[in-house]
Amino acid sequence: MKPIRAILFLCIILTALPTKAEVIEDIAYGDFNSWVVREIKESAIIGGNTKTVYEIGPNKLIKGDIPYSNEGGSPWATSNVMAKVVGITKCSNAVYKEPRDGNGYCVRMTTILEGVKALGVINLKVLVSGSIFLGEMFEPISSTKSPYSKMEMGIPFTKRPTHLIYDYKVTVPKDKRMIYSSGFGPQKELDTYDNAEVYILLQRRWEDEDGNLHAMRVGTGRQRYSKSTPGWINAHELPVWYGDITKRADYKPYMGLIPEEKSYYARNSKGKMVPVVEEGWDDSNATPTHMLVMASSGCGTAYTGTVGMELLLDNIKLKY
Question: Rounded to an integer, what distance in angstroms lies between the CA atom of residue 264 and that of residue 273?
Fold first, then answer.
């Protein structure tokens, strides 16, 4: 009986020991209950309409074609932008402030065809997928060349969360294939279907003597959505895996390292925007220097997507 008593006593001791408590941390403005609303009059040559453009930040109204930078300490940027090309002001808005069942607001990202009609004759349509991300967009946009160089992806961050938590709702148009529409040349239907997407990436970055930025991938959480949800999915937990995850049974190719030709940009110590080149998988115990969180109504390349695809998000948090 003594061995049995010893085992029972040991079990009692072990169950009485304190366990590490879960910690939930809000991401600033991640409840999407406050918004910056911009009212911008587009140039007369393309109709002169006043567009409403939304940004994630403190409750504020901004009137006029004023270049936007993050307000109120908000870490969030969106794909909503104001462009000025050869003196013509044009706005794009595919991210919206959305009421949520009488309980505050959420963010709605949608894929749209943004129309541009010049002099009532020239009618261009450009496909835009609504996206939000941690970082900053630099306005005004003056060209479509090298789009990633016009946005800084990621924020300084040195913690190691276990999950990204969020509420989400997805609407996928039935049997609608992706299209390509850049505004130049004919619109093309593609033989594939789009997905909405949410990800969190943790990187350890450093700068070389020439000002180039390098990174190792520390942590990865990435999920794509190809089907409509029946309603809101609340408190979904997206796990963050550390180190090289390519041998995991649930690894998908889209979770891999960012190809060099698709590198996101950041500002180096000299103030210059340069690509951040991911060079490999870091040690599973490494400490990151930056966090990237992004959500989008599409996961294709520029000017491709499924019109009408929607991703709604709310209550984005980190879990430790």
Answer: 10
Ranked by mean pLDDT, the top range of 7-21, 145-159, 176-190 is: 145-159
Structure tokens at 41: 């009059």
Residue 275: strand pairing partners? 265
Pairing, β 81-85 against β 35-41: unpaired
Asked if the structure places residue 68 within a domain, the reply is yes
* Whole-number Å distance between alpha carbons of 69 and 89: 17
Measured between its terminal Cα atoms, the distance across the chain in Å is 42
Is residue 93 classed exposed, middle or buried when 0-12, 13-18 and 19+ CB atoms within 10 A define those classes? Answer: buried
CB 222 within 8 A of CB 203: no
Rounded to the nearest 5 degrees, what angle is found at the Cα of 140, between the Cα atoms of 277 and 157? Answer: 40
Domain count within the chain: 1
Does 3 fall in a domain? Answer: no
Judged by average pLDDT, the poorest of 34-38, 76-80, 143-147 is: 143-147
Answer yes or no: is 162 within a domain: yes
CATH of the domain at 96: 2.60.120
Over the stretch 8-54, which tens digit does the pLDDT of each residue have?
A: 555 555 555 555 689 999 999 999 999 999 999 999 999 899 999 99
Backbone angles phi and psi of 255, in degrees to 5: -85, -5
Percent of the chain predicted with pLDDT > 90: 77
Q: Which of 4-13, 20-29, 64-73, 257-266 has the lowest mean pLDDT?
A: 4-13
Structure tokens at 287: 């400490």
Q: Which two tokens stand for residue 127?
A: 């496909």
| Mean pLDDT to the nearest integer, 152-173 | 97
Q: Is 15 among the domain residues?
A: no
Nearest to 225 by CA among 251, 195, 199, 254: 195
> Which runs of E-coded beta strand occur in 16-104?
24-26, 35-41, 50-56, 60-63, 76-78, 81-85, 88-92, 95-99
- Band of the pLDDT at 299, cuts 50, 70, 90? very high
Residues found in the chain: 320
Enclosing domain of residue 141: 22-319
| Rounded CA separation 118/81 (Å) | 19
